[in-house]
Design a protein that fits this description.
The structure holds two protein chains of two kinds. Chain A is mostly helical. Chain A has eight helices and no strands. Chain A starts with 6 loop residues before the first helix and ends in a 9-residue tail after the last helix. Chain B has one domain: MetI-like (MetI-like fold), CATH 1.10.3720. The chains are: A mainly alpha, B mainly alpha. At the A-B interface, helix 3, helix 6, helix 7 and helix 8 of A face helix 3, helix 4, helix 10, helix 11 and helix 12 of B.
Chain lengths: 234, 233
């Protein structure tokens, strides 16, 4: 058989990877919008914590943060359930993976969106307010579409990083595509040694396919968000 | 908590004579892979910026594949994948090289950072002002002299801000070495965490050390930019 009977497992792992990456993206995207708003705010009570958040998260390796958050929360949860004489609750690795990835890459998105917002000419926001648009309307119709155009290269970059970072979540026990490949290697170890090379290459190819696909999606998005913009002629 | 720190602080920083661990290994992994990656990336960037397609397309393919797959998969492939091939085990040199986790890790990190660095440098080379090259040609410079005296010094300077980012990312990526049994800072933190079951203290201390190193690297690059990019400011 083509994948030694492990095709199904690899396919399920791939789906898990895609789900994990997409959900983390949504989570990070929302945190990024809130973080950018906080960081750009004039109130020190909002901008200072947001600055601490982005500085700390971006200064520490993602794998360290992942292990730190996952094991610390499990530890604290155990102590809490012990103190209340309850049964131990195990954090679901998928849920934990989405939260941790979203929390980490939210910091990167904060910086991306902050740059995007700063790149929108201030006069446009003033003009929109002068037309009597509400704050929400200004955000929805003037700020967001333009900010997206400036932030799109950064968003595409962050997305690729999130997609590749899902591979790390196998270390905290999630059955995504790398783990599926490792399971396949253990399962076929008796049939010949080259299987490790084969299945890891398959995992690599799956990632390459996913990054290539997302490149295409971002090309379409870029075209959408640059409607009405004249390209510089060089 | 105090016990953990008393027991492990030396391992976090440098380990002991003859058995280096922790921060020292992390720094060594970073310096070795970034250094080797730099010397690999300069010729590759020149090749990638070349107008000759037979030269630039293979390099583009290499950077595309490396940048499109996770470093973790690359490390696993080089660490456990390559060694599973009979041809590698039958060749004495390859056998000794790939049996050592440290060699595999450095090789994976170097190939990875070289791909990203190639992209950064190639972008900077392509951004060289046309007039500079025209002037150099008018002076009768050969291609080699043109690259050595005009294009590369300016391009490498312009690449500094993006390059500093890549160095920080590489520093952070060295944590993957722990999964290949290399005793770096994260590996020590994992050991400490599982011995005392204090994950927050164990990983938190490692996170603080990584944070300090990140800030030190940022500070060094800021000094470098002030020195070598002054003409752009």
């Amino acid at each position: 058989m083509l994948l030694e009977g492990y095709g199904q497992q690899l396919w399920r792992g791939t789906l898990e990877t895609i789900q994990l990456a997409l959900l983390s993206l949504v989570f990070a995207f929302v945190i990024g919008l809130i973080g950018a708003a906080a960081k750009l705010s004039r109130s020190l009570w909002l901008s200072f914590p947001a600055t601490i958040y982005t500085t700390l998260i971006r200064g520490v390796p993602d794998l360290v943060l992942m292990l730190l958050l996952y094991y610390s929360f499990q530890d604290w949860l155990n102590r809490l359930t012990d103190a209340l004489n309850q049964q131990q609750i195990d954090i679901d690795p998928f849920f934990a993976g989405v939260c941790v990835l979203g929390f980490i890459y939210g910091a990167y998105f904060t910086e991306t969106f902050r740059g995007g917002v700063l790149a929108v000419p201030k006069g446009q926001l003033e003009a929109a307010a002068a037309y009597g648009l509400t704050n929400w309307q200004v955000f929805r119709r003037v700020l967001f579409p333009q900010m997206m155009r400036f932030a799109l290269p950064g968003i595409s970059n962050n997305w690729q990083v999130i997609l590749k970072a899902t591979a790390l979540v196998s270390i905290i026990g999630l059955h995504e595509v790398v783990r599926a490949a490792q399971d396949a290697i253990t399962g076929t170890s008796s049939k010949g040694a080259y299987h490790a090379f084969f299945f890891l290459s398959v995992a690599g190819l799956i990632y390459l396919l996913l990054t290539t696909l997302s490149n295409l999606v971002f090309m379409v998005l870029e075209r959408h968000y640059s409607i009405g913009i004249r390209k510089p002629e060089v | 908590m105090n016990e953990l720190i008393q027991q492990y602080w030396q391992q976090y920083l440098w380990g002991g004579p003859g058995h280096l661990t922790g921060l020292v290994i992390t720094l060594w992994l970073t310096v070795a892979s970034v250094g080797l990656g730099f010397f690999l990336a300069v010729p590759l960037a020149v090749a990638k910026a070349s107008t000759n397609r037979w030269v630039s397309i293979p390099v583009s393919l290499y950077t595309y594949v490396v940048r499109g797959t996770p470093l973790y998969v690359q490390l696993l492939l080089l660490y456990s994948g390559v060694y599973s091939l009979d041809a590698v085990r039958a060749t004495p040199f390859l056998n000794t090289f790939f049996r050592d986790a440290f060699n595999c890790t450095i090789l994976a990190f170097t190939l990875n950072t070289a791909a990203y660095t190639t992209e950064i440098f190639a972008g900077a080379i392509k951004a060289t002002p046309h007039g500079e090259i025209e002037a150099a040609r008018a002076y009768g410079m050969s291609n080699f002299v043109l690259y050595r005296c005009i294009i590369l010094p300016a391009a490498l300077r312009r690449a500094l801000p993006a390059y500093s980012n890549e160095v920080i990312l590489m520093l952070h990526a060295t944590t993957l070495a722990a999964t290949a049994t290399v005793p770096d800072l994260l590996k020590v933190a994992r050991n400490a965490s599982s011995e005392y079951y204090l994950p927050f203290v164990a990983y938190g201390s490692a996170a603080l050390l990584y944070l300090c190193v990140s800030f030190a690297v940022i500070w060094l690059f800021q000094k470098a930019e002030r020195r070598w990019l002054a003409f752009l400011g």
